[in-house]
Write a structure and sequence with these properties.
By secondary structure, the chain is mainly beta. It has one domain: 2-Layer Sandwich (60s Ribosomal Protein L30, Chain: A), CATH 3.30.1330.80. The protein contains 1 helix and 8 strands, in the order βαβββββββ. Strands 1, 2, 3, 4, 5 and 6 form a 6-stranded antiparallel β-sheet that branches. Strand 4 and strand 5 form a beta hairpin. The longest helix is centred in the N-terminal third of the chain and has 12 residues. It is globular, with a radius of gyration of 16 Å. The relative contact order is 0.33. The mean pLDDT is 96.
């Protein structure tokens, strides 16, 4: 385990409208405002998208289980944003519910907003953090180059 200390910087309130692309919108704000590290909280609705609901088996590297939906779902999500190479990389997990069924997983691609999503992007400053390719897993993961150990 590693850890690093930072502080909260600016706070951005984002309102997404029906059929907006959720992840593209968050990335666009991070690029325009040069948010290099941050947290994301959101709530609202998603019309459609694809999420990863776990690995097929608990092995490294993992093979993701993709779940697609296009039936309109309520969403509650939390995530982080750190830059990888020249742009923001978002790690966002959420619970997506419709009726008595809930999907929970990593929100990754092709997301279209249903009605509205309200999101808060909180900048983290004074911290050396980014996303980098992890040689053990083959995944792009959080990297704390000057992180401390307990």
């Amino acid at each position: 385990m590693q850890y690093a200390q930072g502080s909260f910087g600016r706070v951005f309130l984002l309102k997404f409208d029906d059929q907006d692309d959720l992840l593209a919108g968050i990335r666009a704000v991070a690029i325009k405002e040069q948010v290099k590290a941050g947290t994301i909280m959101l709530l609202g609705g998603l019309r459609s998208g694809s999420i990863v609901t776990g690995p097929k088996e608990a092995v490294i590297p993992p093979e993701p289980v993709w779940q697609n939906f296009s039936d309109g779902r309520e969403v509650l999500g939390i995530g982080t944003l750190f830059w990888h190479n020249d742009g923001p990389a978002i790690h966002l997990h959420g619970a997506l519910g419709r009726g008595k069924e809930t999907l929970t997983g990593c929100i990754r691609k092709d997301h279209s907003v249903y009605l509205v999503i309200e999101a808060v992007l909180t900048e983290i400053i004074g911290i050396d953090a980014r996303r980098a390719l992890d040689s053990n897993t083959g995944l792009v993961m959080l990297d704390l180059p000057s992180g401390r150990r307990p």
